[in-house]
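Ticket #4471: structure export looks truncated?
Reporter: QA, pipeline team
Priority: medium

Steps to reproduce: submit the single chain below to the structure queue and open the exported record.
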Amino acid sequence: MNILFLGFYADFASFYTQVGKNLVDKGAYKNFIVASCNLSGFVRSIRYCSIFLPFSVRFNAGKAISLNETVLSVSEAQYIGEYASFSAWYSRKLVHLYFNYFIWLIREKKISTVVVGGDTRLQSRALLLAAKKLDVRYFCFEQGPFSTTTFDKNGANCNLSFVSEFPAEHHERSNIFDKRAKRKLSFLRYFDYLCSPLFSWLIPELSEEKGILAVLKRSIVKRLRSLKEKWTFDYKKSDFLECEVLVLGQVPQDANTLLFSNYGDSLGVLKAVLALANTNSVVFREHPLYIGAYGKEFYKYCTDKRVVLSKKMTLEEDIDRAKFIVTINSQAGLEAILRKKRKVFLAGRASYSNINGAVELQNLDLNSDCRSISDIEHKQNVIWFSKNFIEGHFRDVDRVVLINSITGRLNEA
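Actual output as written to the record:
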């Protein structure tokens, strides 16, 4: 009885390795395997049973296809490739390659349990569907707010099993909103820049027709264009204090934005806000890791419509000065509800769509004076959060509590 972990970067592999060793030491599993989509994850766990997916899929593709009699329906294939632009011919190829590979891998390595990071990327969905087809139990894990983690049998983000749950009674953890543990990003992440051209090896037709150098050149040109656009476009920023509507931006082209938004990307959300709210006092707060990276069309729209970009303000300061808060489904929105007892207007599906204070964007009314939730509603939210989010973050330097919690849940299931 073996367990398979699927992750992307070095921090995933580091976390998986500790959990896997803990499980093996306790006798819960005979062996564990860490499959990484990026080079940093493979290098981080290379001392153990580690798989670098681009290579492993490429060199085992023929064997996997010949031994797999499981049929993938059109709807299942579209589900796997939804975030990867399934309409593109190479994405359709990748869907079948990964699905066949994971069916083969589960059988070959006698996998009884699968743990997947997230549930939206092509690799994640291919493995999840393969596990379902073979009746192998699976879990999805994802980082949460306030140094927490979700570990769920149903999915991650807005697909979590507890999204519609609202428990009446449960213990309440104290000071859960004040924890900020030390985190460390591995330097191995820099190796992941090498992974882009390697993915072309997955499809013989692509590697023969385009060539590794052509794929690498296209990747470099795209990145340089993005950097040029990011730093040369002149858009308005201000630290002015007035703010009637604050829009919390998310990672551009992220799965949570593209798959779960009711209005498309951040530009679509801004347009919806301005259509609903007759105001010239709209502030957009960019994701801290993607400042200036929302595209030329977005910033031109901000300039034309006098949308101001937040500057020199912390997230807490922005929330405090805003009369109304809008986001698609970001963790910052959940933090505003839990920490500040503020109502947040959601432009998409979120893991917290059903808690007190989460309101659909279409109900935005600037004439309303009701912008906060009551103390009773807040306590209900805290109980919900305490029950469903595990203490600890997979990037924390000290992960003992989290690893023990995850190990316990895997042993109980």
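Status: closed, not a bug. The export was complete when the record was re-opened. Leaving a note from the reviewer for reference: The chain has two domains: 2-187+392-412, 237-378.
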